[in-house]
Design a protein that fits this description.
Elements (H helix, E strand, L loop, with lengths): L3 H4 L2 E3 L11 H11 L3 E4 L6 H18 L2 E5 L2 H7 L3 E4 L6 H7 L5 E6 L2 H10 L3 E4 L15 H11 L4 E4 L7 H6 L4 E4 L1 H4 L4 H12 L1
Parallel strand pairs: 1-2, 1-8, 2-3, 3-4, 4-5, 5-6, 6-7, 7-8
């Protein structure tokens, strides 16, 4: 059984549009070299075949660095590529349905911004929660912002490990941990940096 909370400390989401011209593979590799403990493959514009091919690349990279590999939205791609898990948002397959379909041991994450949602997803069989958006974010401009106090309320409502997400900078890491999060999920703060490896290293040091 994996120590899931430990694997969620620094959860990096490469971005096809926000990576300053670098491929998803390059972003992923540099983030892992800097200390990322988990990667999420999120590429909404990709065809199913392209997403599957990218998932195989991420799987190999995560194996090489001992990191957790999560596919966003797509349970089918997660299963086909041998990913460690899938992350489901409000418009995706319900957590309860994914839990029925998923093989034993597949990690299922869900997005929550309220205590009520957190308790529901825990009952339905989620393994961890992505909680936010904490702050305004360029990655999801329509995301509702809940702030650190919103994060605290969600963390108190569930026994599941909670990962803070949304507009997080390296300097806020300690505040998130104090609010109950086990780690931070970041995209542009790492993959849009001049030096992805160094940005990931700084985040990881703050979160340990």
């Amino acid at each position: 059984m994996i120590d899931l909370a430990r694997r969620l400390i620094l959860y990096v989401i490469p971005d096809a549009l926000g990576g300053r011209g670098r491929t998803l593979e390059e972003q992923a590799r540099l983030a892992l070299e800097g200390g990322a403990t988990a990667l999420q493959l999120r590429h909404k514009e990709a065809s199913s075949r392209r997403l599957y091919d990218e998932a195989l690349v991420f799987r190999r990279l995560c194996d090489a660095f001992g990191a957790l590999f999560i596919v966003n939205d797509r349970l089918d791609v997660a299963l086909a590529s041998g990913a460690d898990g899938v992350h489901l948002g409000r418009a995706d397959l319900p957590v309860s349905a994914a839990r029925r379909l998923a093989p034993r041991g597949l990690v299922i994450g869900a997005s929550a911004r309220t205590a009520e949602a957190a308790r529901l997803f825990e009952e339905q069989g989620a393994d961890y929660l992505g909680v936010g958006a904490l702050f305004p974010t360029k990655t999801k401009t329509d995301a509702a912002v809940i702030g650190v106090e919103g994060l605290r309320r969600v963390c108190r409502a569930t026994a599941l490990p909670c990962v803070a997400i949304g507009g997080i900078s390296e300097g806020l890491a300690r505040e998130l941990l104090d609010a109950g999060a086990v780690g931070a999920a970041v995209s542009s703060a790492v993959v849009a940096a001049d030096d992805i490896r160094e940005a990931a290293r700084l985040f990881r040091n703050r979160l340990e």
